[in-house]
């Protein structure tokens, strides 16, 4: 069995697949890769099923050695990726020979690299998924230096000669993402709902896999008082008492007590996963 020995793990490296949906009634979030499209693409490039487990690597600084030959693909964030010191093209399949060292430099565009290895990362599954939930600490522990990761057996599909979709790096400037009305949109003033779409927001430094807080104008509520906790979904935009919105992400609590003014579309969530602190984000009607 092929093994991958991690020599440097960077700021945060996690094993992630497409998560464990359908367990919210047990208090378990879906979790899974924040940039789901990037994981599906990386897996497709090496012939894996879309949901095979890969590595989500925050901002780079990752280095690992293969004990046997393996096909790999790196998607998501864009930066210098090398095999034995030679740069490899982003968003393409590459062959790592036995003993090869893969290194992911600091991300130049985007925030999260996704690494897929043909066969998938073969960590034990918890509740049907190999994903790490950082809020509840379910799933494989964060990948640390010295960790040896086993790779599963080769899938039936071959490595494709050419992917069917063009791939582009995450934007370095502002992004625009789609919003649907939230279940508590009527708790906010007309001016607040207009501001949500008219203002330029920025990702704050308070952003992780649980939620991404935004800096910008205050959203004024029409309805005062407390809200009984109710279910949340990925992309729920909660607004705290200070009027600042937070986009709930994969590792969110499954219930929340702040009113949800809007909900991001799934494709928009992939874009938010690649935002860097200070990067501008605007919203449009879905």
TrEMBL record:
Keyword Metal-binding appears in the UniProt entry: no
Domain Carboxyltransferase: 25-286
MF (Gene Ontology): ATP binding; hydrolase activity; transferase activity
Classification via InterPro entries: CT_A_B (IPR003778), Cyclophilin-like_dom_sf (IPR029000), PxpC (IPR052708)
Matches recorded under SMART domains: AHS2
Keywords: ATP-binding, Hydrolase, Nucleotide-binding, Transferase
Matches recorded under Pfam families: CT_A_B (PF02626)
Name of this chain's protein: Biotin-dependent carboxyltransferase family protein
Native source organism of the sequence: Agromyces fucosus
């Amino acid at each position: 069995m092929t093994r991958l020995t991690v020599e440097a793990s960077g700021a945060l490296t996690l094993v992630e697949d497409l998560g464990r949906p359908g367990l919210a009634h047990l208090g378990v979030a879906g979790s899974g890769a924040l940039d789901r499209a990037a994981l599906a693409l990386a897996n497709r490039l090496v012939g894996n099923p879309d949901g095979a487990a890969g590595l989500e690597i925050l901002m780079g600084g990752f280095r690992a050695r293969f004990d046997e030959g393996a096909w790999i693909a790196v998607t998501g964030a864009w930066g210098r990726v090398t095999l034995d010191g030679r740069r490899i093209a982003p968003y393409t399949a590459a062959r790592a020979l036995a003993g090869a060292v893969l290194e992911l430099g600091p991300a130049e565009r985007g925030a999260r690299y996704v690494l897929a290895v043909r066969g998938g990362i073969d960590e034990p599954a918890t509740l049907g998924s190999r994903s790490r939930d950082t809020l509840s600490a379910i799933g494989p522990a964060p990948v640390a230096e010295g960790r040896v990761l086993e790779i599963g057996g080769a899938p039936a599909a071959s490595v494709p000669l050419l992917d069917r979709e063009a791939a582009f790096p995450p934007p370095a400037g502002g992004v625009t993402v789609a919003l649907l009305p939230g279940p508590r949109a009527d708790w906010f003033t007309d001016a607040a709902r207009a501001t949500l779409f008219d203002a330029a927001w920025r990702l704050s430094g308070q952003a992780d896999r649980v939620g991404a807080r935004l800096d910008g104008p205050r959203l004024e509520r029409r309805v005062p008082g407390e809200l009984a906790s109710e279910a949340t979904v990925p992309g729920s935009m909660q607004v705290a008492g200070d009027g600042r919105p937070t986009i709930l992400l994969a590792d969110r609590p499954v219930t929340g007590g702040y009113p949800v003014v809007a909900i991001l579309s799934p494709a928009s969530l992939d874009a938010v996963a690649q935002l860097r602190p200070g990067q501008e984000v605007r919203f449009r009607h879905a």
